[in-house]
Amino acid sequence: PSAGGWIAETGEGVRYSFDSIDAVTTPRGTYAWMLSRVETLFGDTTRLEWIRNPSGRPFLAAVTWGGRGDGTQYRMTFDHAMLAAPFTSYVSGTKQVLDRRVSRITIGVKSGATYAVRCHYDLAYQSSPSGPGFYLGWVARTYASGEADPPISYQYDLNTELFAAARL
Prior knowledge:
Distance between the termini: 53 Å
């Protein structure tokens, strides 16, 4: 325990911090501790920032890493798009809603007090044919220059043929 949160340390000296501000707390107590910081024995640091929706569910908003001590040389930000059909979960003991998914990831490098964009990744999803779920369909990387790599696409065996032929 540390300052209302937790620190876990590996045998190699890597410290994983779970700050109380990033915890998912319900009337029954703390349900989950979100990772806040990782620090190596050499001082390499990674920080994670979380945002919450109105139901209190956390979503990763940004990660900073690189540079000894402060861990702010690079920054990865996550843009979220709202789901057409949100999911409700009571696994924490209270209602929490999954109402968004990552739509863009942006990578920047520190330039003075801000971050200069190096590239961004756009994500697209495929809807499930049998429910409100979704699957990652493709990822496309675009550089700050405007040049882009060919998108990487993913395909899934969703058993649509099997379901179509099934007798119920």
